[in-house]
Write a structure and sequence with these properties.
The protein has 110 residues and is mostly helical. 51% of the residues lie in helices and 7% in strands. The chain has a two-stranded antiparallel sheet. The protein is rod-shaped.
């Protein structure tokens, strides 16, 4: 019979060393990994804080812009105009004004 090429002299299967992955141990990389937990955690916190601050600024900017638009629209509305039928009561120069002085303050009644 033919001899099996995959077996060694003691009967075990031969190891294929050419296609196997090799692991290289790097002491500096291990130390950096073990001592870097705090640094990485602080970095994640810093990035998250920056994102939150950016979102907050964007939200404040959006609210201000909405408020400006609402104010501009409200100035154009009819609710803030003087009704002509009562305009003479508001803008009249011949209205009677009573001023009462109480020493420390005065009261004006129109």
């Amino acid at each position: 019979m033919g001899k099996n090429r995959n077996k060694t002299s003691n009967g075990r299967k031969q190891i294929n060393r050419e296609t196997k992955m090799r692991v290289v141990f790097d002491e500096r990389a291990r130390k950096e990994f073990l001592t870097g937990f705090r640094k990485r955690k602080d970095e994640r916190r810093r990035v998250a804080k920056e994102q939150i601050e950016k979102k907050l600024k964007d939200e404040i900017k959006k609210i201000r812009e909405d408020t400006r638009k609402k104010l501009q629209n409200s100035k154009k509305s009819k609710a803030h105009q003087i009704v002509p039928e009562i305009a003479h009561l508001i803008e009249s120069n011949d209205t009677e004004t009573n001023v009462t002085d109480f020493g420390s303050h005065s009261v004006t009644v129109t």
